[in-house]
Amino acid sequence: MFFSDKDNDLADICMEQLFNAIKQQNKDAVKETFSQKALEKAEDIDISIDYLLSFVQGKVVSWNRDESSTVFDSVEAEGKTKQLVTWYTLDTDKQTYLILLIDYPIDTIDPANVGLYSIRILRAEDEDKLVGTWEEWMIPGIYIVD
Question: Would 48 disulfide with which of 88, 123, 142, 143, CB 3.0-4.6 Å?
Answer without folding.
Answer: 142
